[in-house]
Write a structure and sequence with these properties.
Blueprint (H helix, E strand, L loop, with lengths): L1 H23 L2 H14 L9 H20 L4 H25 L16 H20 L10 H24 L15 H4 L10 E10 L5 E4 L12 E12 L12 E2 L3 E2 L1 H5 L4 E6 L11 H14 L2 E6 L3 H11 L5 E3 L2 H7 L5 E6 L2 E7 L6 H5 L3 H40 L1
Parallel strand pairs: 6-7, 7-8
Antiparallel strand pairs: 1-2, 1-3, 4-5, 6-9, 9-10
């Protein structure tokens, strides 16, 4: 029985830590998901609170997971785990039945589950959480209460710092199909052997003699008999769900050239995209640096476009107000929010591959770019960031080892 209790504690703890962490490193992604939820349930008046809930939910999940995994204050925080599961399990059942949002977002973009998969996952976790709650007083930590509290405070501060950094810049880890190093064109292609969605098309034709409307399939509709039949309408029904490409519905529409998506993705030269999904919400103080980047691109012979979902009137007003020297193309807002978690932000492409992404405040100085090739600069900056992440990962491992050390010491003394 002791093994079962500890196994439940460890599994639920790991799931909570993972869920809280992947949402914590992408607070804007959770912000967008909360907005989808509130709009779907007719609670758009709550949209002003979405960012707060994004930070609060990820932090709470992470701390509960830390407490369960490392056996800290379980007698108290088991209540938090039970309340979480008691709230979200019925909610995911409602989502599975009504399907107002296709992805619950419980694991951010790191793991996409259907609403039914999420519900059954929550049923299993709920049963484990009930086991932990019933026996919560039997989980004894080797640390004093103040020591347990201190570790939870340190873990919370660390997670909060990561979330704030990811919000102000870009997510530390990017699980989206637009991550650095991914090729957009490949993400839009159907893999060999994969089946697309299959639809059944119903065609309705009107009999000119009797006025009767009959339904036909694509195999037997009277397309040649124009003397007796005339086309009325058509409809289609999804028969079998096929493979969904990681990137779909991406269309870059130029104001005069039309659809230039393929042209951009096949360009072997550099293309720089300044993304602002909503110009009215875009932080204009970073526009000066982006304008300088556009001038640099023009000097080097690179393509440079702005991407936005704003209206033509808003685009023209923004360009005039901020002296924007480049053309804006229109793209679906959801695609732009998925591309980069910054408004504005910059994406550097070459041959359809994403070389680097910068938040508006992180647009590099032109002197740095002029001193080297753009591709080399992007690679060097990514390597530098990976080294920084490695250092912090080592620090985190030392923290975990230090957290476990007192428990081992206590066992030796016993």
């Amino acid at each position: 029985m002791k093994l079962v209790k500890n196994l439940c504690r460890i599994i639920v703890g790991i799931v909570f830590i993972y869920s809280g962490f992947v949402k914590g490193i992408d607070p804007l992604g959770s912000d967008y998901k909360f907005t989808d939820y509130f709009n779907a349930f007719g609670m758009s008046w709550m949209n002003a609170t979405t960012l707060f809930f994004s930070f609060a939910l990820s932090l709470a999940e992470f701390l509960i997971g830390i407490a369960l995994l490392f056996n800290l204050w379980i007698s108290r925080l088991a209540w938090g785990a039970l309340l979480f599961m008691a709230f979200f399990t019925p909610l995911t059942l409602v989502l599975a039945l009504t399907n107002p949002v296709s992805d619950c977002g419980c694991f951010g973009d790191a793991m996409i589950l259907t609403n039914w998969q999420t519900f059954w996952k929550n049923i299993i976790l709920l049963l484990m959480t009930i086991m932990i709650f019933v026996y919560r007083k039997e989980f004894k930590s080797q640390l004093a209460p103040f020591g347990q509290f201190s570790y939870l405070v340190l873990a919370g501060i660390g997670m909060l710092c990561i979330s704030i950094y990811s919000y102000r810049h870009l997510p530390l880890l990017d699980f989206r199909p637009y991550a650095v190093g991914k090729n957009i064109a490949e993400g839009m292609q159907l893999p060999e052997g994969a089946e697309p969605d299959q639809y059944e098309v119903t065609l309705k034709y009107k009999n000119k003699q009797t006025g009767e409307i009959q339904s036909f399939t694509e195999e037997n509709y009277p397309w040649q008999d124009t003397l007796n039949w005339e086309y009325e309408s058509s409809s289609e029904r999804l028969v079998k769900k096929g493979y969904v490409t990681p990137i779909h519905d991406l269309v870059i529409e130029h104001p005069t050239l039309g659809n230039i998506t393929e042209e951009i993705l096949e360009d072997d030269n550099h293309t720089i995209l300044a993304v602002a999904y909503n110009l009215g919400k875009s932080n204009a103080k970073y526009q000066t640096a982006i304008n300088r980047l556009a001038d640099y691109a023009r000097e080097k012979g690179f393509r440079f476009y702005g991407l936005t979902a704003s209206s033509e009137q808003d685009i023209e007003a923004y360009k005039k107000r901020n002296h924007v020297p480049y053309e804006f193309c229109t793209v679906d807002e959801i695609q732009l929010k998925t591309m980069i978690r910054s408004n504005p932000g910059v994406i550097v492409l070459r041959g359809g591959t994403i070389l680097d992404k910068w938040a508006g405040k992180d647009v590099p100085d032109m002197k740095e770019l002029q001193a080297t090739d753009l591709t080399a600069y992007c690679i060097h900056s990514r390597v530098q960031m990976q080294r920084i992440y490695l250092v912090y990962s080592i620090i985190l491992l030392f923290f975990v080892a230090y957290l476990l050390f007192p428990r081992r010491k206590g066992k030796r003394n016993n």
